[in-house]
Amino acid sequence: MFSEGKLGNVPLKKIYEDYSKFTSKYNSKTEEEKQAAVKKAQEEAAAKLARQNSSPGPLGGGGLPEGILSEEVSIRCHWKKLKKT
């Protein structure tokens, strides 16, 4: 931890000031950068929601299982042959 070994030896005010300096190096984004990041996140979330709401589901699959269509065609052909006789 940041304050390890300092508590009881260094005044709390000094520990806090050092900690503030230390964290400011990592939190140095400007207000404009923060607003831009928030706006970008909001736009991405809105686009994702729009895609989810507009999509009927996956385009592939979802139809008849393979083989059923060919069976249906062969049954119809066989039925036509039976009707002719």
Summary tags:
single chain, 85 residues, mainly alpha
What does this 3D model show about the protein?
The radius of gyration is 34 Å and the shape is rod-shaped. The protein has 85 residues and is mainly α. It has helices spanning 12-24, 31-54, 68-84. The longest helix has 24 residues, at 31-54. Helices cover 64% and strands 0% of the residues. The mean pLDDT is 76.
- Total number of helical segments? 3
SS-derived structural category:
mainly alpha
Number of strands: 0
Mean pLDDT: 76
Described by strand count, sense and barrel closure, the largest sheet is: none
Helix content: 55-70%
Distance between the termini: 93 Å
% residues in beta strands:
under 5%
Computed Rg: 34 Å
Shape: rod-shaped
Q: Spans of 5+ residues with little confidence (pLDDT < 50)?
A: none
Order of helices and strands: HHH
How do the strands and helices of this protein lay out in sequence?
Layout: H1 12-24, H2 31-54, H3 68-84
Short description:
This protein has 85 residues and is mainly alpha-helical. The protein is built from three helices and no strands.
